[in-house]
Every structure is written in structure tokens, then in C-alpha cells.
Amino acid sequence: MHLLNMSMMHAALVDSFGVPPRYGEIAQPEPAEDDVLIRVKAAALTNLVRGQASGTHYSSEPVFPAVPGNDGVGLMPDGTRVYFVGPETGSMAEWTVVDRRRTIPLPDSLDDVTAAALGNPGLATWGSLLGRAKFQAGEAVLINGATGTAGRQAIQVAKYLGASRIVATGRDEAALEGLRDLGATETISLNGTDEELSSRFAPVVQGGGIQVVLDYLWGPSALAILTACGGHGSLRGEPRIRFVQIGAISGRTLPLPADILRSSGVEILGSGLGSLSAAAILESLRTMYQAAATTRFVIDTEAVPLSEVTAAWTSDTGNRRLVFIP
User: In CATH, which superfamily holds the domain spanning 121-270?
Assistant: First the structure.
């Protein structure tokens, strides 16, 4: 299309890795045969989006200028309000293009901001528990890094799905105590030496005390959990512990001794883009939004005009999920 005939739109624009997006104009995307043009109503800022925009996430694509955002809430051409994921162009814009098969109609009980905020942490939890760990009601779950947005959702979802025990970890002592109100049955502080952490985890995970670990941190605390699991196998076989790795806020690598895996029932699984199929992602999201239609999953949000994206990008929002409104 000739430049003079292009429709323009406002969007957040990433010009290079490591620099916060600016608010500017870019050509409005055009849908291909299987795509639909969506009027974006809300798009959440997540660690995944930050990682992609900074070039530190494995799914980053160095094509500039780029519109950040990989999900959101918007209106279809017929007015249907949907959650969408995996748009062909970023979601932090007035308009985006997405494969119509990656849209999910939303219940009226969820407002735009809440629905957008639930998407990423919801997938991180539902996809990990059901899609990767194959969680069954009655099993016990340990959530490593439970004071963040995704971890807080994980507590509520594990409770909703029938977990018999929910152990939550974190560094913020006050925030940890508040997690009991969301459904945590026990909490473990991550403050202390590596040896102290391992000693705290040992009585929790050994002897079949935990069946599923949701790890949002990796790094030292993840190693402490895995170390606590090691050395307790038997000829009967140690009960399975499905360790699902979801985030790496505390580090991308760790020195894991091989004998920990050989001497325990630990199975390490990844959950993220690439380890979950598109079908599994959509199924997890549909399940989550169906549950959210009748069950209130607590999530703190802060709505911000997209025009303020540069300042908001690096602001400290605590445990609130920042949601941009185009």
C-alpha cells in the first residue's frame, strides 16, 4: 500500500533492546486471510513482555521498530469482546492483528483490565499445573516465588483445583504471611544461606510431602529445593516430584549435581513458549477464563494510558499488574 494511503495508529514502539518503548505512530496492520483486526482495549505489562522488549528472553526478535505485547483484550469487527494471544503484531497499540483461532470470548463478569491482567499469570499457572505437571486434585504443591503476581495466582488456582497442601515461598516476610488469605497452607522464607534454605525445604519435600513444584525463580532457591529432594530414593522408588520451571527472575543457570536426579523422583519440566503447544495454551486459557467467570481470582491492577508507556515501563508497581489502555 502506498504510504499516503496507509492508516496510522498510536502504539508503544521499541527502537532498540534495553531502551524503554516510546509512544508514537506506526502503520495500522492489515489482516491476512486467517487473521482478524482487533481494536485493543487493554494489554498487560509482564516479565515476558519486558524480556522480549529488552532482548533477554529466548523468544525476542530483533526487528525494529517493534510493538511490544503478546496478549490483551479487544473487540472483534462484530463487537465481540475477546482475550487474544500471540498476535501477528504487538498488543500495545490501538489495533493489532491476530489469528482468529487465538481469540477467546470473555464473560461479562470480567472487566477489560482484569481480563488482560489475568492472561499471562493465568497461563503460567493453568498451563503448568494441568498441561505440564498433569496435576490431580488432592496433590500437594510447592510454589517457589509466590509473592509475585503469577505466584499469587498459582496459590488461588491450586486451591481451586483441589490441592491438599499449598506451600508458598518468598523473601518478603509480610507478603508471605498475607498469602495464607489466598489459600497457602504453609510459607517458607527464602532469606538465609543456601544451607539454611535446604534445611527448610527438606522436611517439606521428603517422604512424598510434595508432588508438584511450580518454580517462578530458578537460581539459588530452586537449587535448594532440588538439593532437598536428592538422596532419598529407595528400591521401591521415590514418589514422583514434578518440578515445573516457569520463570528465571533469580538467575538463568544453576549448578545441578547429576546425583540429585538419580537419587530422587524429581522430574524437571519446562513450561513456556515452546514447551506448550498452541492448542495446549489455548485450552489452558479457555479453562482459566471459564473458571474466572464464576470465581473471583484476586489480582491487583493499575491501569495506565498507553501514552505514558515510557515512564510507566520502569516504574515500581509492587505486586500490582500494570495494564496499558490505548
Answer: Medium-chain alcohol dehydrogenases, catalytic domain (3.90.180.10)
